[in-house]
Amino acid sequence: MQQSGRAAAAALLAAGLCAGQAKAAAYDFVPAPQTDLNRVYRIDKVTGEVISCQYGLQEGTVGVTLCFGAGEGAGPQAAGEYGLIASKHEREAGVFRANFRTGDVSVCYVLEEKVVCTPQTGPSADAGTPPRGPLAPPGPGRPQAPGPGTTRPQ
Predict the structure, then answer these.
(1) Which of 36, 87, 116, 124 has the highest CB neighbour number within 10 Å of its CB?
(2) Could you list the residue range(s) of the whole structural domain that residue 79 is in?
(3) How confident is the model over 46-60, as pLDDT tens digits?
């Protein structure tokens, strides 16, 4: 009886390890809200890494899947519980990356064939002060931030 109890415990442990490995490789997918863009974003739920793929026309074929790897800010973050949230703005090509454990968010979008994300941020400890300093002025590789309700051209 003792051996069968040990075997059952070992089987449960192995199943738990396999489930943990499957959970670590879990992804979530969200389409871009822009109504005329066939783009989907993928996030690694544990690391927060974001990539994007879309359909592309290619003469003489049924087409191709174009994927954009993780660029600045879109790579792995501190371990957490991440997800993607699409706004309901019909002209928005980006999505929000949220860390459901900390409440921090960032915005991710495709720029120059890479997915880029703004730094993760949330409400500051002192609600009277902004969480970050002023935005850096535009420069090489730093496009001008769009105004409210606008989207960068894709």
Answers:
(1) 116
(2) 25-117
(3) 999 999 999 999 999
Which candidate, 67, 66, 113, 119, places its Cα nearest to that of 97? 119
Residue 10 corresponds to which amino acid? A
Residue 34 covered by a domain: yes
Beta-strand runs (E) in the chain: 27-31, 39-44, 50-56, 64-68, 82-85, 95-99, 105-111, 114-117
Residue 111, phi then psi, degrees to nearest 5: -140, 120
Residue 140 lies in a domain: no
pLDDT 10s digits, 3-56 = 555 544 444 444 554 454 545 559 999 999 998 999 999 999 999 999 999 999
pLDDT of the residue at 71: 98
* 40: β partners: 31, 53
Which whole number is the average pLDDT over 135-139?
A: 49
Beta-carbon contacts of 114 under 8 Å, excluding residues fewer than 6 positions away, are 68, 69, 70, 71, 72, 74
The candidate with the shortest Cα–Cα distance to 30, out of 77, 94, 73, is: 94
**In the chain, how many domains are there?**
1
Of the pLDDT bands very low, low, confident and very high (cuts 50, 70, 90), residue 123 is confident
